[in-house]
Amino acid sequence: MNRLSVTIIAWNEEERLRACLESIAWADEIIVLDAESTDKTVQLAREFTDKIWVRPWPGFAAQKNFALAQANGEWVLSVDADERVTPELRERICRILRSNGPADGYSIPRKNIFWGAWVRHGGLYPDYQLRLFRRAAGRFVDSAVHESVLVEGHVETLAEPMLHHSYRGLEDFVARSNRYSTLAAHQIVSRGGRPGLGALVLRPLGRFLSMYVLHAGFLDGWRGFVLAVLYANYVFLRTAKAWEARRGPAEGAQGER
Fold this sequence. Notes:
Layout: E1 4-10, H1 17-23, E2 29-34, H2 41-45, E3 52-54, H3 60-69, E4 75-80, E5 83-85, H4 87-99, E6 105-108, E7 110-114, E8 117-118, E9 129-134, E10 138-141, E11 148-151, E12 155-157, E13 162-164, H5 170-190, H6 197-214, H7 221-256
Parallel strand pairs: 1-2, 1-4, 2-3, 6-12, 7-13
Antiparallel strand pairs: 4-9, 5-13, 6-9, 7-8, 10-11
Helix pairs in contact: 5-7, 6-7
């Protein structure tokens, strides 16, 4: 059977890493790449593998490609510290390894867990992520906010999911929205985007209505409502920061006087 390497990048993931590592302990090889954590992330990882690297943070794609370069298996599964491989997904991956395919890469659905429950609606499922691929056929490509896997060859989707425990709570969501919206705004401006004042109203409103009404987020109760508001706020921040960047610091300073 083909060998599987699992790659994980982490930074201060002491609270969530153990559950992730336990869910992939069956793999032939586990590679953990740490971005100079200040907690016990590295010590915890040593309970599961001796293939641990520590290096400064260069960005998502660069970090994951470095981890990929350390892999020896014919197949690679990339997981994040806040993700868990379900028993059903494990069995499906093992069948793929035994048959060596037939595809070159596989997109895996994620069940996003918020406040202890799976959010089924709002466009948050199936949330396909290309994570399983032949080592020789895949690499990570960068974008401002989220990296992705580029596979040379045929890609299929799986039905068996992984679990995604993304946010620790409201404070974590807001902090990451602020950070990611800054990166996304820079990308909008660098690509020539010119959001106006109307976009500050219409784009966040569109995101809320899309999640809560069009994609039936209301069926998830209060979770669906809160998430629709939070994602709309992220869109507002992203758009407002791009709008502010286009005006420039001089104009903004004049407007404050």
